[in-house]
Amino acid sequence: MFSKSFTFIRTKYISIMNSFIRSFFSLPLTVALFLTSPEVLCQTYVNDDLSKSPQSDFWPSGKKMALSLTFDDARLSQIDTGIPLLDKYGAKATFYISPGNMLKKAEEWKKAALNGHDIGNHSVLHPCSGNFEWSRGRALEDYSVARMRSELDSANRLIESIFGIRPVSFAYPCGQTFVGRGAGVQSYVPVIASMFESGRGWLNEAPNDPYYCDLAQLNASELDGKSFDQVLQLIETARANGHWLILAGHEMNDEGRQTSLLLTIEEICRYASDTANGIWMDNIHNVASYVVQKRIEESVSAHRKGIITIKARPGAKITVEQLRHEFWFGCAISNGLGSGRMEENDLINYKEKFLQNFNSAVTENAVKWGSMEPRKGEVDYSVIDGILKWTEENDIPIRGHNLFWGIPQFVQPWVKELNDDDLRLTLQNRAETVTSRYKGRFVEYDLNNEMIHGNYYKDRLGPGITKLMAEWACKGDPDAKLWLNDYDILTGNRLADYMAHIRKLLKQGVPVAGIGVQGHLHGETFDRSQLKMALDSLAVFNLPLRVTEFNMPGQRSKYYREKIQVMSPQEEELKAKELTDYYRICFAHPAVDGILMWGFWAGANWIPVSSLYNRDWSPTKSAQAYQDLIFSEWWTKGSGVAGEDGTFSLPAFYGKYRITVNRTAKEVDLKKAEGKLIVDFANKRK
Ligand SMILES: [Zn+2]
Asked: Distance from the CA of 209 to the center of ligand 1, in angstroms?
């Protein structure tokens, strides 16, 4: 079935590409594409100040710059002479392939991919402006964003079917990033940002600043026709600034038009392999993924760390030990803990592992109205009381999930039977009693869960009901913090709806204290750029964000759909990577205040394989990965001696610390809101 359709695609593409390539090379107009004024190109470099010191230590192993060689269109000379030369030096390049050309040498291209070369997408039809007559039948002026997306998706699927890997790198044909004409012109850069890790331009003639560059619009400089000396000038400029230089070429041969010269390539390889030259040469994917990771690290340092300064006598011995994070690394607490119905051995493990891993909590089911009052008037507070007793004994802040939940199937039948007046009174009573009974004990409440997915109370009582709910909750506890909480947001699917909903509530004057995003709805993996984009979007409200109900793998994975309870070692490995990448992106984002998992033990988790611990309490790979991240990589430990001025300072993650000077210890909090902390041991009275 597959091979049949594949043959069809292949034949179709070859015929399209053949005619396309014929027209490409027969028309002299093509030349215009490559005629860019050399004066303009040179200026960028001539004006650069080579004496500037390179940008800090962005690149790995003390390298001063990154360099990527890239080649387009899957020209035959790349396979025949180019790749063998690169392989001789172990150099890894990126090839943005045109499927029609690639299929002529599919086996050789497969080998190149196995050898570490990055195979990128370069569209199917190579659409450029119709000013190039050869492109008039597929002119960008006549494209739509949707057509472009679908073409790029076809190319991705074709490449994946051959190489077994979906491309993550893209190069804009002719370096052009628009579709349409005049007032209807649109950029297709956003499509690239959502489909690929990176998008490379063409003839931009400048390197990329790794701290700043938009990965969806990477600059490239021309390699075709250049001597090594010309390339060396580009390298020197990039190195002086710590930049990432991307060279782009076509044919790889000794001579000819649109040709990167083998002699030049060989000299680049030799030069880059001399460690004294400080060059990290690698393919686009390897460099781009490093840039993403490094930026996350920098963002974590910038937003999650402050400075602790200790004043003591000169020469005093000082140790600084972190005791907990200020950021909420939390988890849902299952009813079994509060009800005492969990088996004793499990309960002991549950409590112990919870405290080892988490500093904050949310009630999984205990506060839901349907669990507390399934029948009218019979309200069970015992589970909540049991949970709060334990969290308070252990200094675990906890969120109350939730006061209301208007998805119709979760509204108790007796509530639905009430007439409007009684319903309103009953809601008021519910909100007031819970918040007054637990005044000051829940840090925050989810006011009305999942409103964009279903809102029975609004449907019955009108759009003003949310504000009334908030007023009633505040009557019971004037300091109650009321949060929103919804799902399918961090996937991007309902992000725009959620934002519109939040705007509406704020306009109505609903006192929204924070924005909860659940984090259940991923599959086996998640879209990193989408997660970041969703957090960036929600940050515009200037309210704290929490990922309130995180599962990985999530609800769209096969594990949930098919109720699979066991993972292979490879799947465990992937899960650990997904989980830590997720945490990194959230922790690096300044608007996020916490992440709470929705279960950590397979014995009490609706997606059992998303747990840190198996049913028998053996840890999964994810438990180790999680702990390495939170209690090692993001954990501050320091010791030293106070200087001559009696001070000792160190950057530290926000949180609680024990500071010991000689033998005196103090517990202190380094708070994000303050950014720094001075602890005075010199003044005896303190
Ligand atoms: Zn091209």
From this structure: 24
**Distance of CA 73 from the midpoint of ligand 1 (Å):** 5
How many helices and strands in the chain, by DSSP H and E? 25, 29
Q: What is the pLDDT of residues 605-655, one digit of tens each?
A: 999 999 999 999 999 999 999 999 999 999 999 999 999 999 999 999 999
Spans of the chain below 70 pLDDT:
1-56, 684-686
Does the residue 516 lie in any domain? yes
Pairwise CA distance, residues 10 & 215, whole Å? 31
**C-alpha of residue 231 to centroid of ligand 1, in Å:** 21
* Domain identity same for 602 and 658: no
- Residues 165 and 309 both lie in one domain: no
Q: Report the C-alpha gap between 85 and 65 in whole angstroms.
A: 23
What CATH number is associated with residue 250? 3.20.20.370
Residue 249 CA to residue 28 CA, distance in Å, equals: 19
β 305-311/279-281 pair status = unpaired
Any idea what the Cα angle at residue 281 is, between residues 276 and 287, rounded to 5°? 130
Residue 450 to residues 243, 398, 502, Cα–Cα distance (Å): 45, 19, 12
Of residues 242, 187, 162, the one with CA closest to residue 209: 242
- Residues with CB under 5 Å of ion ligand 1 are 72-73, 173
Q: Which two tokens stand for residue 444?
A: 């925050």
**70 C-alpha vs ligand 1 centroid, how far in Å?**
11
The rounded Å distance from CA 176 to ligand 1 centre is 10
3-class SS of residue 10 = helix
Q: For residue 88, how far is its CA from the centre of ligand 1 (angstroms)?
A: 26
Domain that holds residue 146: 61-282
In this structure, are 450 and 489 located in the same domain? yes
Catalytic residue list:
450, 549
Domain count of the fold of the chain? 4
Give the pLDDT confidence of 161-182 residue by residue, as tens digits. Answer: 998 889 999 999 999 999 999 9
